[in-house]
Design goal:
The complex is a heterodimer of chains A (131) and B (111).
Chain A (H helix, E strand, L loop, with lengths): L1 H80 L2 H7 L1 H28 L12
Helix pairs in contact in A: 2-3
Chain B lengths: L1 H6 L45 H12 L9 H32 L6
Classes of the chains: A mainly alpha (131), B mainly alpha (111).
C-alpha cells in the first residue's frame, strides 16, 4: 500500500515539476513579450513625434516660401506698374533717390537673412570678424 | 510534507526579479557652425538724363579726376534688380531649409 502511495507521490511530484518548469518558461516568454511590446510602443511614439516635427517643419517651409515669393513679386511689380525710363527722363533726381533707397533696402534685408542664419548657432563664429 | 513534494518547492521564491528597461537610442548629430553674417556696402546709382547730363559729367570729373564711369541702361537696371531679388529669394528659402534641418536633427531635450 505504502509503495503504491510512494509511486503516486513520485508521479505527482514529477508532473508538478513539469508544470513548474513550463510555468517558468511561460513567465520568461511573457516577460520577453512585454519587453518587445514596450520597445515597439517606444519606437512608435518616437516615429510619431519625428513625423509630427517633420510635417510641421515642411508646412512651415512651404508657408514661408510662399511669403518670400509674394514679397519678390511685390518688389518686381513696381517695374511693371511704372515706366522707369520715362520717369528717369522726367525726374532723374527723384528716381536717383528712389533707386538708391531701394538698393539699400534690399541689401539690408539680405543682411538680415544672413544674421538669422548666423544666429542659429547662438552667434558662434568660425573666424574672428575684422572691421 | 505532501504539499512540499507536490509543489516541488515552488512556493519558495527561487528567482530574482530582473527589471529590464529599454529605451530608443537618440542619434547625436553634430551641428555645424553657421557662416558669419554678410556685410554689404551700398553702391551709389546715378540717374542721368538730358536734364542733368552736364552736371553729372562735372560731378564725375570732380570726384575721380577723369570722365570715366560704368553705365547701365534702364532695362539693364531692371534686370539687375530682378537678379538681386532672385538671389534674395534663394538665400531666404535656403535659410528656411537650414532652420528645418536644424530643428529636426536637434535632440528633443534641446528644442
Amino acid at each position: 500500500m505504502s509503495r503504491i502511495l510512494l509511486g503516486v507521490l513520485a508521479i505527482l511530484g514529477l508532473f508538478t515539476f513539469f508544470l513548474w518548469n513550463e510555468n517558468s518558461k511561460l513567465a520568461e516568454l511573457n516577460q520577453a513579450f512585454k519587453l518587445r511590446d514596450q520597445e515597439q510602443k517606444e519606437a512608435i511614439k518616437t516615429l510619431q513625434e519625428d513625423f509630427k516635427t517633420q510635417s510641421e517643419g515642411l508646412l512651415e517651409i512651404q508657408k514661408r516660401n510662399n511669403e518670400i515669393e509674394l514679397e519678390m513679386t511685390r518688389y518686381l511689380d513696381i517695374f511693371k506698374r511704372h515706366n522707369l525710363t520715362k520717369l528717369a527722363i522726367a525726374k532723374p533726381n527723384l528716381i536717383e533717390t528712389r533707386v538708391n533707397n531701394g538698393t539699400k533696402k534690399v541689401f539690408d534685408s539680405i543682411e538680415e537673412v544672413s544674421r538669422t542664419i548666423d544666429g542659429l548657432d547662438d552667434n558662434l563664429q568660425l573666424q574672428s570678424v575684422s572691421e | 510534507m505532501v504539499l512540499t513534494i507536490i509543489s516541488s518547492c515552488s512556493l519558495f521564491p527561487s528567482r530574482q526579479q530582473v527589471e529590464i528597461i529599454s529605451k530608443p537610442i537618440e542619434r547625436s548629430i553634430a551641428q555645424p557652425v553657421m557662416p558669419r553674417e554678410i556685410s554689404l556696402n551700398d553702391p551709389y546709382w546715378y540717374v542721368v538724363s538730358d536734364k542733368n547730363l552736364d552736371e553729372f559729367l562735372a560731378q564725375i570729373e570732380k570726384d575721380s579726376g577723369n570722365v570715366v564711369f560704368l553705365a547701365m541702361s534702364v532695362p539693364d537696371y531692371e534686370l539687375m534688380a530682378y537678379n538681386t531679388q532672385e538671389l534674395k529669394r534663394y538665400i531666404s528659402e535656403l535659410q528656411e531649409v537650414v532652420v528645418y534641418y536644424r530643428k529636426v536633427t536637434t535632440p528633443q531635450e534641446n528644442k
